[in-house]
Amino acid sequence: MNERVKLWCAAAGLKTDGRPVSSHSLRAGGATDLGMNGATDEELQEAGRCKKGSRIPRERYVRPTKDPFKRVPVHNPDA
């Protein structure tokens, strides 16, 4: 599976931040999306096909992103 993911990404012309792409990238992406949208630990375990009670999905795969534009002032004409 891992080699296919690398092949698909290369064929699609996808660029990375320098870190290698793997099937775990897909697992982390899914877990992050679920986790950032309120998924419970049980839902993360089920989606990641992990053992019941495992902390791995939340602790290893949920990777919140930082918003680089959070501090940029936004013009508000009504202010």
Q: Can you characterise this structure?
A:
The protein is mainly alpha-helical. Helices cover 48% and strands 0% of the residues. It has a domain at 25-62. Helix 2 (23-36) packs antiparallel against helix 3 (41-47). It is flat. The mean pLDDT is 83.
The count of β-strands is: 0
Low-confidence stretches: none
* Main sheet attributes: strand count, strand direction, barrel closure: none
Mean pLDDT reading = 83
How far is the first residue's CA from the last residue's CA? 53 Å
Structural class: mainly alpha
The rounded Rg comes to 17 Å
**Strand composition percent:** under 5%
The global form is: flat
Give the helix level as a range of percent: 40-55%
Order of helices and strands: HHHH
Note the total helix count: 4
Write the layout of secondary structure elements.
Layout: H1 2-12, H2 23-36, H3 41-47, H4 56-61
What is this structure, in a nutshell?
With 79 residues, the chain is mainly alpha-helical. It has a domain at 25-62. It has helices spanning 2-12, 23-36, 41-47, 56-61.
Defining traits:
single chain, 79 residues, mainly alpha, 0% strand
